[in-house]
Design a protein that fits this description.
single chain, Rossmann fold, five-stranded parallel β-sheet, 5 strands, 46% helix, globular, binds zinc ion
């Protein structure tokens, strides 16, 4: 029988993964990572709300050492890049050393200890274009690794791998997922800044789907 862990940042992709997989893969546990990112507090709060909504256990993993060794615009004093005009420079500015590799391996340890069958991550087509740790090849390579590094041999699932942000918002709307609870912003402060790369991707996808209600709720537009 399936029993799954989800990596839940509280952002759009992780919500839609949870909504899609909750029943079929019996998602029981969500892991949210605090590695000193500017948005940590609001991500944790959003993830907690989503866990309450879907009735699953929430665990917050603190990675202070990752915060200490990471010097970039997500965690440090550097300003976050705005907009989507230069995705490669933006990806470089927010890169966290081995982040998804690390997160999946931490989830792999939980899976191995408690015999979870699957680990779900919101890697998607849009971000795979600039983040190599969002690709199908990466997920497959971690699956191969787990064959050797665990006894439970959990499988990494990437349900959004063929979808861009427009598709992901469309799925959320079709399945009536609670988009109002999402927190996708990279920056400090409450709510969505509307300017960082992640906000721009979400805002564009909401606009393209005609989701006026959520544009108003999340971006006050
Ligand atoms: Zn933002």
């Amino acid at each position: 029988m399936n029993k799954s862990i989800i990596l839940l940042s509280g952002g759009l992709d992780s919500l839609v993964c949870l909504g899609l997989c909750k029943e079929e893969y019996n998602v029981e546990l969500a892991l949210t990572f605090n590695y000193g990112q500017k948005s940590a507090e609001k991500e944790i709060a959003a993830a907690a709300e989503l866990c309450k909504y879907y009735g699953i256990t929430h665990k917050i993993i603190k990675l202070d050492w990752l915060k200490e060794m990471t010097h970039n615009a997500l965690t440090g004093n550097n300003e976050l890049p705005h907009g989507l005009d230069n995705p490669e420079a933006s990806a470089k500015a927010v890169w966290v050393p081995n982040r998804n590799g690390l997160f999946l391996n931490i989830a792999g340890a939980f899976a191995d200890a408690e015999n979870y069958t699957h680990i779900i991550i919101g890697a998607n087509k849009e971000e795979a274009a600039t983040f190599p740790d969002n690709t199908k090849e990466f997920a497959e390579s971690i699956n191969t690794e787990f064959q050797y590094s665990t006894q439970a041999k959990p499988q990494v699932l990437v349900p959004l791998i063929n979808y861009d942000k427009n598709d992901i918002v469309r799925l959320a709307l079709e399945k009536e997922m609670p988009l109002e609870l999402v927190q996708s912003c990279y920056d400090t402060g409450s709510g969505h800044c509307g300017k960082c790369e992640s906000c721009c991707r979400l805002k564009n996808a909401l606009k393209n789907n005609g989701a006026a209600k959520y544009l108003k709720q999340l971006f006050n537009e």
